[in-house]
Amino acid sequence: MKTVKEINQKIENGEAVVVTAAEMTRIVAEEGTKKAAEEIDVVTTGTFGAMCSSGAFLNFGHSDPPIKMTKTYLNGVEAYSGLAAVDSYLGATQINQNPEIGLDYGGAHVIEELIRGNEVELVAEAYGTDCYPLKNIETSISLEKINQATMVNPRNCYQNYAVAVNSTEETLYTYMGTLLPNFGNVTYSSAGELSPLINDPYFQTIGMGTRIFLCGAQGYIMGEGTQHSTDGERRNGVPTGSAGTLMLKGDMKQMDPDFVRGATMPKYGPTLYVGAGIPIPVLNEDIAARTAISDENITCKIIDYGVSRRSRPVIRETNYAELKTGKIEINGMEIPTSPLSSYKRAKMVAEELKSWIEKGDFFLSEPLINLPNRGHVVNPLEITRPSRLVKDIESKTVIITHPDDQIKDVARKLVDNNINHLPVVDNNGILEGIVTSWDIADAVAKGKTKLAEVMTRKVVIAREDEPVDVIARRIDKNNISGLPIVDKDNKVKGIITAEDISRLIGENVENENGEESL
Amino acid sequence: MKAWLRFLPSIVNKAIMSDAIKLFDIDFNILRAHITPRGGKMLVEISGPQETECVNYIEERGIQVTPIMKVVKKEAEKCIDCGACVSLCPVRAICVQDDWGIDIDNQICIACGFCINSCPTKAIILIE
Ligand code: SF4
Ligand code: SF4
After folding, report:
1. What is the per-residue pLDDT for A509?
2. Least packed by Cβ within 10 Å: which of A74, A161, A210, A332?
3. Quick check: B83 and A339 CB within 8 A?
4. What residues of chain B, 69 to 88, have a C-beta less than 8 Å from chain A?
């Protein structure tokens, strides 16, 4: 049994024994927990991953004449300014005002730019008051010039996280990176055995006021992060899903650009790569045993991101040892894996923190109050206007056609019924393809006669139990004007068009060629 | 060898490449192509014992050949070794090193551009 005070004394004397969490795993495997608990004082952890829920409070200082900023833009990225006159909060995922830049340069990039010491353009607007008469400002700021730049991240360092795969036939661009169709790749984001909250899964040493490594500076844990949850399934003490989170703060003026990076998840948006590390004091044998967790003992779940619902299906369980081999088996196929967080930099974080402690530059702090380790669940947001499902749409008798029908008959069907889409089905009503009036016009122009030659076989479909909003997104993304509704056996039940959807959700869904549908 | 071939508008329609393939019995693989009526360029892989003769032949006929060692370049200052690109490469040209750094093997790369579009820090560029 040791105390944090005793360990700090050892740090002061330059005698503390500090190892990284990866080293601890080997030490305990070789020497056992008892000996390790006696010999090791501190275990350092680290992670370097995309953490969307990050941002910074900035205080620009007062101009002359003064201004009460109501809108502020930094290099074209809006920061929230509904605070006192010259305070604002810049969120990492805020996208650029300029639609041509959009996702490519957002809040996270501005944060990196500031930490690098670069000048950033500030544009502010105001309505003008007696005490703050100025209405517009255009100037430039830098980290050095502004009063405060405090990074405050409401949710960082997820304890564990889902592993992503995509079962659909189209590429998906997500916060878990680019997911290739038909289980083409697998992405994961946790640093595994090096990850901070995995090494103290019941928060025996971590809580409000714990001093940590944050982007190369000494930062602090403010408390549990948003969506902190404690009661999910655990294996070897470690949650098998997202679970615990942290709210962190740190002074950007002390940060090092090597440990923070603005990034853009392709077609998803900006995010901030944050390097964070937590020192865990080895106070007793139990804590030593927890920090000895190895990649193969950390279970996580591969989730199908092809289903855009809140609860997505679990494809299988895995662990970080398997993921880190670079390939994994799903349904008999060997699938390549990608980490999204940098294990190389996570190790650098843990090593850097270790060297700070060894050099006596960093002392441990005892939390004022430990993070809660039970009783926290994440509640869903219920939509008061329930989301409508495809099957709720008033169904019209579905008009269909068969692959060996003649083009001219199909053309007549389209005209007679005043429609633009016709699902093509086999004798059992199973979907085989789709044909639009445009396809028919094209076929006539090219002198084709058989429907089978012109129909589209790769059909984007809607399932009966899918929410209409999900279909709206699908129509938008595929730039189509309508899609057939099928049941679980791929039997055609109806057709849903962009127009049906606009009527239902009151949103304008763009359709192909700007044509009117149905 | 991998090389960029540049064509002038006047020879876009001529069958220089197919003649060269027959004459020198080489393996010819088109990795990338941008061809317009105003000329164009192609990234190709040419291999076989008569590689050099083949290159000389097509150069003589007006195709500009620029051999390249690297197809794509990963900028070290920008890359954070996150690994997002690794599983996207269709030919497994990107791999995780022993120190967990990420490396691209240009010998294997076929310039599909997937990693370029998917890198969160835009660290990879196509060398043209
Ligand atoms: S995706 Fe980009 S930043 Fe990540 S490892 Fe590949 S090149 Fe480096
Ligand atoms: S360009 Fe394509 S082939 Fe080359 S490394 Fe990138 S993903 Fe692989």
Report:
1. 42
2. A332
3. yes
4. 80-88
What digits encode the pLDDT tens for the residues B17-76? 888 888 888 888 888 888 777 778 888 888 888 888 888 888 888 888 888 888 899 999
User: What distances in angstroms separate CA A192 from CA A13, A39, A239, one per listed residue?
Assistant: 32, 24, 12
Centroid of chain to Cα B95: 19
Question: Higher model confidence: residue A192 or residue B15?
Answer: A192
Say what the pLDDT of residue A505 is.
Answer: 66
CATH of domain B71-128: 3.30.70.20
Query: Tell me, what amino acid is at A334?
Result: E
List of chain A residues whose C-beta atoms are within 8 Å of the C-beta of residue B88:
178, 180, 185, 338
Q: Which of A212, A222, A226 is nearest to A276 (CA)?
A: A212
Alpha-carbon distance A122 to A8, whole Å? 43
Among positive and negative, which fits the CA dihedral A344, A346, A347, A353?
positive
> Which residues of chain A fall short of a pLDDT of 50?
507-518
Whether residue A318 contacts residue A299, with contact meaning beta carbons closer than 8 Å, is answered with yes
Percent of chain B with pLDDT over 90: 37
- Determine contact, residues A510/A476, Cβ cutoff 8 Å: yes
Flag if A261 and B121 touch (Cβ within 8 Å). yes
DSSP assignment of A368-381: SEEPP-SS--PPPP
- So what's the pLDDT on residue A32? 96
The number of C-beta contacts closer than 8 angstroms across A and B is 74
**Which of A68, A65, A113, A67 is closest to A90 using CA atoms?**
A113
The answer to whether A75 touches A105, Cβ cutoff 8 Å, is: yes
Cα A366 to chain centroid, rounded: 31
Could you give the dihedral angle defined by the CA atoms of residues A34, A40, A42 and A43, in that order, rounded to the nearest 10 degrees? -70
Sketch the domain layout of chain B as residue ranges.
Answer: 2-68, 71-128
- Nearest CA owner, ligand 2 atom 4: B109
User: Which of B92, B95, B115, B119 has the most ligand 1 atoms within 8 A of CB, as the residue to mutate?
Assistant: B119
Residue A55: which of A88, A91, A82 has the closest Cα?
A91
Q: Which ligand is nearest to the CA of B118?
A: 1
Q: Print burial letters for A6-25: b (CB count within 10 Å at least 16), e (below 16).
A: ebbebbeeeebebbbbbbbb
* Centroid of ligand 1 to alpha carbon of A272 (angstroms): 14
pLDDT at B115: 94
Contact A273 B100 (CB under 8 A): no
Alpha helical stretches, state H, A381-446: 407-417, 437-445
Residues in chain B: 128
Chain B residues close to A191, C-beta within 8 Å: none
Domain A390-512 has CATH 2.40.160.40: no
Q: Which residues of A are catalytic?
A: 131
Residues A397 and A413 sit within 8 Å (Cβ to Cβ) = no
pLDDT at A507: 47
Report chain B's mean pLDDT, rounded to a whole number.
Answer: 88
Q: Where are the domains of chain A?
A: 4-52+152-368, 61-146, 390-512
Instruction: Name the CATH superfamily for B2-68.
Output: ACT domain (3.30.70.260)
- Return the structure tokens found at A349: 């974080």
A123: β partners? A73, A138
Residue B86 exposed, middle or buried by CB count within 10 Å (0-12, 13-18, 19+): buried
State how far the Cα of A19 lies from the Cα of A194, in Å rounded to an integer. 11
